[in-house]
Design goal:
5-stranded mixed beta sheet, 394 residues, 35% helix, 4-stranded antiparallel beta sheet, alpha+beta
Length: 394
């Protein structure tokens, strides 16, 4: 036994030596080619991770890492953690919606992340939020995880080499909507980004509460996943606790997954997700809205102006044919009052070019009603895409 332990220790030392040599070779090549690297963000083990991802081929690792540096520069990744709401108008909406959180540490002292993908409604997300904003949200969390992992690795071992996480993916509620082409396309796009830019950052990927439908999804996605990553995946049904306990102490596992930890943040303690609702307190939305107006019907949308001298802005377009449009002022919500027309209703030909307009509210704070009227059409419904904003005074 002692001899086996010595052999195992020697193997670990040899592996560490090989990693150090690979890192030095890559650093020297970067220096020789005048490649700028921010060593406050990257370190020797960053290079090792890219080296491992390219099957320990230094030439291929160099190519992969330099492409990664260009990708970071092109997408402003180095500063992505700074004021994300300014770079992504949907960041807060996604942050409050996504059933994703970090909780506790594994037995190595590294972070454990939980995601409840079955709770998502892919159609409502993709119909509402631009794909680039979803990708930005994902990359923000990849960078936040990278920073947190580095801190945990140093704290646990006084070294940066432990830099990998455990991911627990809860598949409860997974359905055919998650396997629709747009959802699969987004998922494979995120996998490709992660494979190329965050290699060797996963310690274990534990799928729990896996339904039978998962086998169909796996066939669609696994061709895009690196075999080394697939080797870290374990798929389990409802009897997942023993596997979690092999990696994570009970005190670090949330109580809803069979552990003894009850310290989950209140805002993360329940399953989120569901249908994504993009509606602000004033009745406006962050993103354009798609709506159907039946024949001889109308759509009414109320928004609240809270500050004097605000400006109402709108834009809309139909897929075909005209629609009636007008705006009414209903007064302050708690005072009532007679409806006042501020934009006279008229038919608008807006299927070829988007209709754009605005109204300066002056002293008239309160509720405004936007009306899209299809009452003139006996036979045809209308597909409308609209966006209304309240622009506060500067």
């Amino acid at each position: 036994t002692k001899r086996a332990m010595e052999k195992k220790q020697l193997t670990a030392e040899e592996k560490r030596k090989n990693e150090d040599e690979a890192a030095e070779m890559l650093k020297q090549r970067l220096k020789d080619n005048n490649v700028e690297v921010d060593w406050k963000i990257h370190n020797d083990y960053t290079l090792v991770r890219f080296w491992k991802a390219r099957r320990r081929d230094v030439d291929k690792a160099y190519e992969m890492f330099t492409k990664h540096l260009e990708w970071r520069k092109d997408n402003d990744i180095d500063t992505i953690l700074e004021e994300p709401e300014k770079r992504n108008k949907n960041f807060t909406l996604l942050e409050n919606y996504m059933p994703f959180y970090q909780h506790g540490l594994d037995k190595r002292g590294m972070p454990v992340y939980y995601e409840q993908i079955g709770a998502l409604d892919p159609k409502s997300i993709l119909d509402t939020v631009p794909v680039e904003d979803i990708i930005h949200w994902h990359l923000y969390h990849q960078e936040a995880s990278r920073v947190h992992c580095l801190e945990c690795s140093i704290k646990a071992t006084n070294d940066v080499r432990l830099n990998t996480v455990v991911m627990v993916e809860d598949m409860s509620g997974l359905g055919f909507g998650h396997l629709a082409t747009p959802a699969i396309n987004l998922f494979t796009q995120l996998i490709a980004i992660d494979e190329e830019n965050y290699p060797e950052s996963l310690y274990r990927y534990i799928i729990i509460n896996a339904p039978l439908i998962l086998s169909a999804g796996s066939k669609l996605v696994t061709p895009f996943v690196d075999p080394a990553t697939l080797s870290k995946v374990k798929i389990l049904g409802s009897d997942f606790l023993p596997e979690l306990l092999s990696l994570i102490d009970s005190s670090q596992i949330p109580s809803n997954y069979g552990g003894s930890s009850t310290e989950l943040n209140p805002d993360k303690s329940q399953v989120k997700g569901g249908v994504l609702i993009d509606k602000q307190s004033d009745g406006t939305t962050i993103n354009p809205v798609n709506a159907s107006i039946g024949r001889r019907s109308k759509l009414e949308v109320e928004v609240t102006v809270k500050e004097k001298n605000s400006v109402l802005e709108w834009r809309f377009k139909t897929e075909a044919n005209d629609v009636g449009f007008g705006v009414e002022y209903l007064g302050e919500a708690d005072k009532g009052g007679k409806e006042e027309v501020v934009v006279e209703k008229k038919l608008v030909n807006c299927w070829e070019e988007e209709e754009v307009g605005k109204w300066e509210c002056g002293n008239k704070v309160g509720v405004y009603k936007f009306v899209w009227d299809n009452g003139h059409s006996m036979l045809k419904g209308k597909q409308l895409r609209y966006h209304v904003k309240v622009v506060a005074p500067v």
